[in-house]
Design a protein that fits this description.
By secondary structure, the protein is of the alpha+beta class. The protein has a domain at 22-75. Helices cover 20% and strands 30% of the residues. The protein contains 2 helices and 4 strands. It has helices at 24-29, 51-63, and strands at residues 12-19, 33-38, 41-48, 68-73. The chain has a 4-stranded antiparallel β-sheet with strand order 2-3-1-4, covered by helices on one side. A hairpin with a 2-residue loop joins strand 2 (33-38) and strand 3.
């Protein structure tokens, strides 16, 4: 599987699992990301245009003391759009 070159305009869907809860102020700075809070983690789901923007988001989280514990790159189907990967059953399509 190839990755898009740096500066590519093709956005990829990401899910970033962060230890702890993200407050509304920080969530509002992550435009284009939906947040789902599960008891001990927050799942951020959204499209990122390139690696540089992904690095900016990860650095922002780190600067706020939030550790990204999981990062997933995955295309979504319509059925999956409302359910973060962390919450899906492993056997679901």
């Amino acid at each position: 599987m190839s990755t898009p070159p740096t500066g590519s305009t093709t956005a990829r869907d990401y899910e970033i699992v962060v230890a702890g809860q993200i407050g509304p102020v920080l969530a509002s700075t992550l435009s284009g990301f939906a947040t789902t809070t599960v008891p001990t983690v927050t799942v951020l789901a959204g499209a990122v245009p390139d690696r540089e923007e992904l690095r900016v988001i990860l650095d922002l989280l780190h600067a706020r003391g939030l550790a990204a514990t999981e990062l997933q790159i995955e295309p979504r189907t319509k059925a999956d759009e409302r359910t973060p990967a962390l919450l899906r059953r492993p056997w679901s399509a």
